[in-house]
């Protein structure tokens, strides 16, 4: 009995971290810099798409107290197309049928290993910062909410999303390039929610392109230079630049982003003809600007001490002062117990939700309230605090089987000379990020006459959904409905990060704050079935080739091979690969030219018999321009689980095929 395709593999996850340790701010080589990366891809089949304490615990066994919550900032690059089940909080793991230990361990081990590699690669070096602009790569997916911000504030900015790309460059004392971090506000949702590929999306592809350029076209993830394209204030920012349209008719969506008759979904797409082309176009736009910045002379050297502060904060217990533009008076405002609004279930134009929920909903429904109350009822104070959000899920009141969303979050800043990196525990919208940058600059301007660069580093250490401005919150788009601590979440963060920056520049210690509960010790639930056994079916062996590639191929062709396979979850192939495309060298040695981390390759696993435990994999390689002529083959590596116990390796290779490269190749579009 054949089953449908459950998982594909395109790009293996890579963790990239930088360690910055101050030596002497007046010296030519001011800093000790180490860069590192490691594979953090979880299980790639039959998995539907808060680990800092575990990372720190592993680091402590090797480095003692050198790395702590104060000086380790873990910022997610972010993708919507990766194996899930590692977030621990119930709400975030619902779509993966609970906690997935394999995903969790892969990420924890990958992050830890990348830090270890960076530590072991530390050399004297210098840091530079520069800024550029990327156009036609992002749009605001909640413009109605953005327009609810004060006009006087909106008039300060040319666009309703940030177009700035900020790049920090890390150069060795011997002028050897070490790495770069690029921050640009765009959601990695070019690969939409119909996708079944494991992919690092547009920013991940940009990273691959940059590293291939700097590492002389080395195998992905194997070169010395490390390039990251990191998250910033991307909360309301979409890469789907054609904007939202009705699914079949192509008509414009309503103001609530619905379509007539509710028989078709409203979603955004573009700029390409499909999600693959769109991903490539956005990736190349970001990559090309990052390369221009890297090669330009318009950089500023970062000079000065490195200081980092960190504090855990119980958000529902926080208060702050807020200036009400309507009443023109200051008010004391408070954080709320976490809750999700109705518009959360509506999804976004990047990925529409379910049932009949609509964005912009500010009234409740008796039926859904009854469903909500069956799980956990909000208190009257919760309802008042979260207003005008109608509460769909009172996540802060839900205790079974364990915590649904965090109440305690991690807040952190790192000050490197006149650069401030604010590590925020969520997805800030465009205007929220702008307000945070301005608030931090105000503190820095009081202590320094030099220009300050403020970077909002998103999704750091804790994930606590979205952060809108109080004005955007009133509109209750998806982002407002997912701002879980109420309308003044941002107000509280502005106060908190100003205090952290002040403590950093004054070199004053801050109390650690209340520790978050150790959820890993809870009775974590997982409904993902284990792999019981694999069989190759009668007359076959694991690794046998069912379909051979053609005897001759050329750049632009797509080559396909099908193998008898075991289940990919038998071995995650960490720092390895499920496939290689190999070329025969003059010395009769086969060398890899592409792996499962390359954009041009796809790895598709398919269960062909549930009863027999039989599987096959389809490997495709879209041959890029610039490949060398010669003799090629495709290799598949895997593991099978024997019915009587044990997991064993196997491999398979195709017949050889000739690569014919035309003498005069036609220049093709870069997003092929």
From TrEMBL:
Broad class of enzyme this protein falls into: hydrolase
GO BP of this protein: ceramide catabolic process; long-chain fatty acid biosynthetic process; sphingosine biosynthetic process
UniProt keyword annotations, A-Z: Hydrolase, Lipid metabolism, Metal-binding, Signal, Sphingolipid metabolism, Zinc
TM regions (residue ranges): none
Occurrences of domain Neutral/alkaline non-lysosomal ceramidase C-terminal (ranges): 498-658
An example Gene Ontology CC term for this record: membrane
Sequence ranges assigned to domain Neutral/alkaline non-lysosomal ceramidase N-terminal in this UniProt record: 54-494
Note on cofactor: Binds 1 zinc ion per subunit.
Location of the active site: 238 (nucleophile)
Pfam families: Ceramidase_alk, Ceramidse_alk_C
InterPro entries with a match to the protein in the record: Ceramidase_alk, NCDase_C_sf, NEUT/ALK_ceramidase_C, NEUT/ALK_ceramidase_N
Reaction equations catalysed: an N-acylsphing-4-enine + H2O = sphing-4-enine + a fatty acid
PANTHER family found in the cross-reference section: CERAMIDASE, NEUTRAL CERAMIDASE
Family to which the UniProt record says this protein belongs: Belongs to the neutral ceramidase family.
Protein name as annotated: Neutral ceramidase
């Amino acid at each position: 009995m054949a089953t449908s395709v459950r998982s594909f593999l395109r790009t293996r996850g890579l963790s990239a971290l930088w360690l910055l340790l101050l030596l002497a701010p007046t010296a030519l080589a001011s800093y000790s810099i180490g860069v590192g990366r490691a594979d953090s891809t979880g299980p790639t089949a039959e998995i539907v798409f808060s680990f800092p304490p575990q990372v720190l615990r592993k680091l402590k066994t090797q480095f003692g107290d050198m790395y702590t919550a104060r000086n380790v900032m873990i910022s997610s690059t972010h993708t919507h197309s990766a194996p899930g089940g590692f977030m621990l909080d119930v709400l975030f793991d619902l779509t993966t049928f609970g906690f997935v230990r394999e995903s969790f361990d892969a990420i924890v081990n990958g992050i830890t290993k990348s830090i270890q590699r960076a530590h072991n690669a530390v050399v004297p070096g210098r840091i530079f910062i520069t800024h550029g602009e990327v156009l036609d790569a992002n749009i605001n997916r909640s413009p109605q909410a953005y327009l609810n911000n004060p006009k006087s504030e909106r008039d300060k900015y040319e666009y309703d999303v940030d177009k700035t790309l900020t790049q920090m460059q890390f150069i060795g004392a011997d002028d050897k390039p070490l790495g770069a971090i690029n921050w640009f506000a765009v959601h990695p949702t070019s690969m939409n929610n119909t996708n079944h590929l494991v992919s690092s999306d547009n920013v991940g592809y940009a990273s691959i392109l940059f590293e291939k350029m700097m590492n002389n076209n080395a195998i992905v993830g194997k070169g010395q230079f490390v390039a990251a394209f990191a998250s910033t204030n991307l909360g309301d920012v979409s890469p789907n630049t054609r904007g939202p349209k009705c699914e079949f008719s192509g008509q414009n969506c309503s103001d609530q982003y619905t379509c007539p008759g509710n028989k078709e979904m409203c979603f955004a797409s573009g700029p390409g003809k499909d999600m693959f082309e769109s991903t490539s176009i956005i990736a190349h736009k970001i990559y090309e600007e990052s390369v221009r910045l890297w090669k330009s002379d318009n950089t500023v050297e970062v000079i000065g001490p490195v200081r980092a502060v960190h504090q855990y904060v119980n958000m529902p217990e926080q208060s702050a002062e807020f200036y009400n533009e309507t009443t023109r008076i200051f008010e004391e405002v408070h954080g709320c117990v976490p809750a999700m609004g109705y518009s959360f279930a509506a999804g976004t134009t990047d990925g529409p939700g379910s049932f009949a929920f609509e964005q912009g909903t500010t009234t409740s429904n008796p039926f859904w309230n009854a469903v909500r109350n069956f799980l956990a009822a909000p208190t009257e104070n919760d309802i008042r605090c979260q207003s005008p959000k109608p509460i769909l899920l009172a996540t802060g009141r839900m205790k079974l089987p364990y915590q649904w969303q965090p109440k305690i979050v991690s807040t952190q800043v790192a000050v490197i000379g006149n650069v401030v990196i604010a590590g925020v525990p969520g997805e800030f919208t465009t205007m929220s990020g702008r307000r945070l940058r301005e608030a931090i600059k105000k503190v820095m301007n009081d202590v320094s006459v030099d220009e300050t660069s403020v970077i909002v580093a998103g999704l750091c250490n804790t994930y606590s959904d979205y952060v809108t401005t109080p004005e955007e919150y009133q509109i209750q788009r998806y982002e407002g409905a997912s701002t879980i601590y109420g309308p003044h979440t941002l107000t509280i963060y502005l106060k908190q990060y100003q205090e952290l920056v002040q403590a950093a520049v004054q070199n004053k210690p801050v109390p650690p704050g209340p520790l978050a509960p150790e959820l890993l010790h809870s009775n974590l639930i997982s409904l993902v079935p284990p792999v019981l056994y694999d069989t190759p079916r009668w007359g076959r062996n694991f690794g046998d080739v069912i379909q051979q590639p053609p005897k001759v191929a050329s750049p632009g062709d797509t080559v396909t091979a099908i193998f008898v396979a075991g289940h990919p979850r038998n071995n995650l192939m960490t720092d390895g690969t499920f496939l290689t495309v190999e070329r025969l060298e003059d010395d009769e040695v086969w060398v890899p030219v592409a792996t499962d981390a390359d954009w041009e390759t796809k790895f598709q696993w398919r269960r062909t018999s549930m009863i027999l435990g039989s599987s096959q994999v389809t490997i495709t390689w879209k041959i890029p321009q610039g490949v060398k002529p010669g003799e090629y083959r495709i290799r598949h590596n895997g593991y099978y689980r024997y019915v009587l116990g044990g997991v064993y390796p196997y491999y398979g290779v195709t017949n050889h095929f000739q690569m014919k490269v035309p003498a005069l190749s036609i220049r093709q579009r870069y997003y092929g």
